[in-house]
Amino acid sequence: MINVLYVEDELSLAMIVEDSLIAHGFNVTHRNNGQEALASYSNKKPDVIVLDIMMPLMDGFSLAKEIRKKDNATPIIFLTAMTQTEDVVNGFHLGGNDYVRKPFKIEELIVRIEAAVKKQAKPAVGQKYEIGNYTLDTLKCTISFDGELEKISFRESELLKKLFEGKDRVIPREEIIKAYWNDDNYFTGRSLDVFISRIRKFLAKDERIKITNIRGVGYMLTVE
């Protein structure tokens, strides 16, 4: 049985979602604000966390940030009406594994919960990649340069890994989106551009590393 920590302050919606998940065999702990959810998480770690963003006392972004300070493994699914590009990017940057927009169908949420838990259950395989003068550690989600270590998000780590593994060839935008964000309706091309810009900043100290945007096609990483 999958243990779900569900955080939602709209009680009528929360009741419907909680009852539906229970009916489909999930064990659900509902909390209606971020502070209560953090206390619940600390008391008993769930298999997956489903949370709204706009909540009293502590919003969903702040809650995710607090959880990710000590836990990079438990899947976090944002379930929210906040669907601007900046919100989506921020959600993934803070360590979110998925981002579902309201309104939604309960069947979709169930599939995404099951997929997130199944993926997390696979043993983590960490690898280190030498990218120019940088070292990317995909298990710890860190990038280092000349002894300086910087923490990056899981999505940033995986995206940089994919770009490097496809070094010197163009990787189509659609391939990247479908590989890491499931559905381009939820993660727009502009959001991907924002992530690429962040990665370029991480790599800015080594001028030999280039991430080129092939307009209308995709991206290519090169090391001169």
Automatic annotation (TrEMBL):
<feature type="DNA-binding region" description="OmpR/PhoB-type">
    <location>
        <begin position="126"/>
        <end position="223"/>
    </location>
</feature>
<keyword id="KW-0805">Transcription regulation</keyword>
<dbReference type="Pfam" id="PF00486">
    <property type="entry name" value="Trans_reg_C"/>
</dbReference>
<dbReference type="GO" id="GO:0006355">
    <property type="term" value="P:regulation of DNA-templated transcription"/>
</dbReference>
<protein>
    <submittedName>
        <fullName>DNA-binding response regulator</fullName>
    </submittedName>
</protein>
<dbReference type="Pfam" id="PF00072">
    <property type="entry name" value="Response_reg"/>
</dbReference>
<keyword id="KW-0804">Transcription</keyword>
<dbReference type="InterPro" id="IPR001867">
    <property type="entry name" value="OmpR/PhoB-type_DNA-bd"/>
</dbReference>
<dbReference type="InterPro" id="IPR001789">
    <property type="entry name" value="Sig_transdc_resp-reg_receiver"/>
</dbReference>
<keyword id="KW-0238">DNA-binding</keyword>
<feature type="domain" description="Response regulatory">
    <location>
        <begin position="3"/>
        <end position="117"/>
    </location>
</feature>
<dbReference type="GO" id="GO:0000156">
    <property type="term" value="F:phosphorelay response regulator activity"/>
</dbReference>
<dbReference type="InterPro" id="IPR039420">
    <property type="entry name" value="WalR-like"/>
</dbReference>
<dbReference type="InterPro" id="IPR016032">
    <property type="entry name" value="Sig_transdc_resp-reg_C-effctor"/>
</dbReference>
<dbReference type="GO" id="GO:0000976">
    <property type="term" value="F:transcription cis-regulatory region binding"/>
</dbReference>
<feature type="modified residue" description="4-aspartylphosphate">
    <location>
        <position position="52"/>
    </location>
</feature>
<dbReference type="GO" id="GO:0005829">
    <property type="term" value="C:cytosol"/>
</dbReference>
<dbReference type="InterPro" id="IPR036388">
    <property type="entry name" value="WH-like_DNA-bd_sf"/>
</dbReference>
<feature type="domain" description="OmpR/PhoB-type">
    <location>
        <begin position="126"/>
        <end position="223"/>
    </location>
</feature>
<keyword id="KW-0902">Two-component regulatory system</keyword>
<dbReference type="InterPro" id="IPR011006">
    <property type="entry name" value="CheY-like_superfamily"/>
</dbReference>
<dbReference type="GO" id="GO:0032993">
    <property type="term" value="C:protein-DNA complex"/>
</dbReference>
<keyword id="KW-0597">Phosphoprotein</keyword>
